[in-house]
Amino acid sequence: MTVMFDRCGEDSEGIGAGQAICMALMESFGIVKMIDDACEWDEKQRILSPGKAVKAIAGTMFTCNPKQAMSNVALFCSGSPVDMLFGPRVTLESLSDSALGRALDTIFETDIECLFYSICAKVKAYIGLDPKMYHFDPTNVTIDRSAGDEYMGLPVGAPVPKLGHPKDGRKGCVQYNVSCAVDEFGLPAYVRTYDGNTDDTKMISDAVRFVENAIGDRRMIAVGDSKMTHWNLVDHMCTHGTHFVSKPPQNFADSAREKVVAEAFRKGFTDIGAIGSRKDSPEFEIHDTDMKCKDRTLRFIVCRKKDRSKMIRHMKRVEGSQLNDLMKSMAHMSFKTEDDARAAYRETVKAHIGKGYDIIPTFRSRRAYGGGTEWKATFKIKFNEARAKDLAASNAEVLITSLPRASVTSDDPTQGITSRDVMRIYMGQWKIENLFGTMKSGMGADDVYFQNPQREAVMIFIIALAALVRSVMKIRLRSCHKEFAIPGNITAERMFLLIQNVSVRYRRAEGRLYLDGTPNDRQRTLSFIDAIGVDTSTLLG
Predict the structure, then answer these.
(1) Are residues 22 and 473 in contact, defined by beta-carbon separation less than 8 angstroms?
(2) How far is CA 178 from CA 137, 192, 216, 506, in A?
(3) CA–CA separation, 377 vs 331, rounded Å?
(4) Which end of the chain is less crowded, N or C, counting CB atoms within 10 A of the terminal residue's CB?
C-alpha cells in the first residue's frame, strides 16, 4: 500500500480532550459566570471577561503537566476555536499576558475568599453533596522570585511574600502562606493567601471562623492538628456550637495531655481493633476519658498501636542511620583537651540518650600533626531491644474532641460518636494533604510567579479552583465506574493520561464537533465524558 501525503490537509480547530472536558465542567457548574458576576468590569471595553480569563489559565492546568506561564496561554490555545471557548470577540491576541493580568487585577478587587467558598458551595449543591465536616491546615507556596525586593504601595489585602529562604530550603526564593479547608468528600471549601510570616494558629482560627459564618445555623465538625488546639479557638468553637477533633499540644490547658497519658497507663487501654480498609491496617487500643480544662470539660482519647514490632524496626533503622552519620562526623573532629572532646560528644548524642541504642564512647589522645597532643572522641552503638520495647509500649498519641461519647455512632456524629470513629475522623487529615499535593505537584503551585503579590494571590485562587474541578471529576468517575467500565481507583491525572492522544475537533464550515483519535481512545473518552456528565455539544463552549 502506497501512502500519499496531502499537502493541502483539511481545516479544523481543536484542543485536548482532557482540557475540553474540564473547561466544559467549569461552564456547566457556573464557575465562569459566578466570577464574572462578582467582578466589576466593563463588558463593552473588555473583550475577555474575568471568568473566561480564569477558564483560559485553568485550562493549561488540566493536563499531565504543571501550569503554563501567562505568556504561554495563547500558545497553549493556538489551533483551538478561541471564540467558542472564551467569547465571540476573542482572538489569540486577546489571550495576551497583559490582558490576562488585567483580569487577575480585576478579580483581586473582589472578595476572593467569599467567592471561592461560594463557588465550592454551589458546585457541591449541584452534585448533591452536603458537607458537615471540614479539615483545616495551612501550607506554604514558594515563589520563583529572588528575595530582597521591598514591596511598597501594594493594594489593600495583597499578601507580602516572606523575604529570605522559604521552608523548602530553595535558595533565592520567597514564599506565601496559604490556609485551606477540605470537606469530608475531599473537595476544597476554603482558600486564602497570607503574608509569608503569618502564624499558623492565626490562619486556622480565621479559616474556622469564616466557615462558621458561611454555613450559618448549620453546625460543623472542624478537624485539624495541634495548631488548631489553642484555648482561644477551642473556647470560641465550644461557645458557637462547633465541634472539633484535634491533637492537643504539650502545653495545652496546664499540660492536660501529660495528665491523660498518665491516667491511660495507670488505668489501662481497651482494644478497638483495626482502623482502615487495608488488610495491613494497624490495630489500636485506646483510653477514652474526660478532663476539665479551665471551665470546660473536654474528651481525650489516648491511643497506641497494638503491634509495636513495626515501630521497633522503624526505631532501629532510623535512629541507627542517624547515629552512624554522627559517628562519621565525629571521626573527623579533633579537640585540644579531653574535656573539650567529652563536651562535644555529649552535645552530639544528647538527643539519642535513653532511646533505642546504647552508646559507648571512647576518648583517646594522640600526637598532633603539627606537634603537641590532640584528643579524639569516638563511639560505638548497640541496639537495646528491651529498652526499645519499653519505649514503643510507652508511646501514645492523644486526640481531643468536643464530640459526645456514645457506644454507637449516630447518623449525626454531634449527637454521639465512638472513640473508634473519632480516630477515623482525625485520620481523614490525608484529604487536605492530598489537596496540597494536587495544588503543588499536580499544577505547579510551588512555582507561582505572576509579576506581583496581588496577581499571585489570584493565581493561587485559580489553582484551587482547578483542584476543585479535578476532585469533582474523581468523585463522579468513581461513583459510576462499573456502569461505564472505568477503573475503580481512577483519578483525574490517570484519566488525562488515558485520553492524552484524543482531541476535540471542530470543522467550522460544517459546524461539526467530533473526537479525533483511534477508535479505542475515542470510545474510552466518550465513557469518561458520559460518566462525568458533560454535554458533548458544549465541549468547546
Answers:
(1) yes
(2) 9, 6, 24, 40
(3) 7
(4) N
The alpha carbon of 54 is separated from its chain's Cα centroid by a whole number of angstroms, namely: 21
Nearest residue to 306 via CA among 356, 277, 269: 269
Q: 213: part of which helix (H) or strand (E)?
A: helix 200-215
CA separation, residue 229 to residues 183, 249, 252, 264, 400 (Å): 19, 7, 7, 21, 8
Burial of residue 101, with CB atoms counted within 10 A of its CB: 0-12 exposed, 13-18 middle, 19 or more buried? middle
- Contact (CB, 8 A) for 495 and 473: yes
What is the distance between the alpha carbons of residues 301 and 286, in angstroms, rounded to a whole number? 7
Q: Which long-range contacts (CB under 8 A, 24 or more apart) does 26-29 make?
A: 26/54, 26/55, 26/58, 26/465, 26/469, 27/55, 27/538, 27/541, 28/533, 28/534, 28/535, 28/538, 29/119, 29/122, 29/123, 29/126, 29/469, 29/472
pLDDT of residue 522: 95
Q: What is the mean pLDDT of the chain?
A: 89
Q: Could you tell me which residues are beta bridge partners of residue 162?
A: 175
Residue among 39, 149, 150 at smallest CA distance from 461: 39
Q: Which of 495, 303, 534 shows the shortest CA–CA distance to 397?
A: 303
- Asked whether the beta carbons of 477 and 495 are under 8 A apart, the reply is yes
Helix ranges (H only) for 350-452 are 385-394, 419-427, 430-437
Q: Whole-model pTM? A: 0.86
**CB within 8 A of 431, min separation 6: which ones?**
135, 182, 184, 186
Report the 3 state secondary structure along 57-116. Answer: HHHCCCCCCCCCCHHHHHHHHCCCCHHHHHCCCCCHHHHCHHHHHHHHHHHHCCCHHHHH
The cell for 52 is 473566561
Q: In the numeric block, which cell numbers belong to residue 530? A: 458520559
The rounded distance, in Å, linking the Cα atoms of 235 and 517 is: 59
Q: How far apart are the C-alpha atoms of 22 and 37, rounded to whole Å?
A: 21
- Condensed to tens digits (0 to 9), the pLDDT of residues 237-263 reads 999 999 999 999 988 888 888 999 999
Give Cα 330 to chain centroid, integer Å: 39
Q: Is the pLDDT of residue 148 over 60?
A: no
> Which residues contact residue 498 at a Cβ distance below 8 angstroms, ignoring those fewer than 6 apart?
524, 528
Residue 231 belongs to what H/E stretch?
helix 231-239
Strand residue runs (E) in 491-537: 503-507, 512-516
Taking the alpha carbons of 377, 383, 389, 393 in that order, is the dihedral positive or negative?
positive
Asked if 491 and 524 touch (Cβ cutoff 8 Å), the reply is no
Question: 123 with 468: CB under 8 angstroms?
Answer: yes
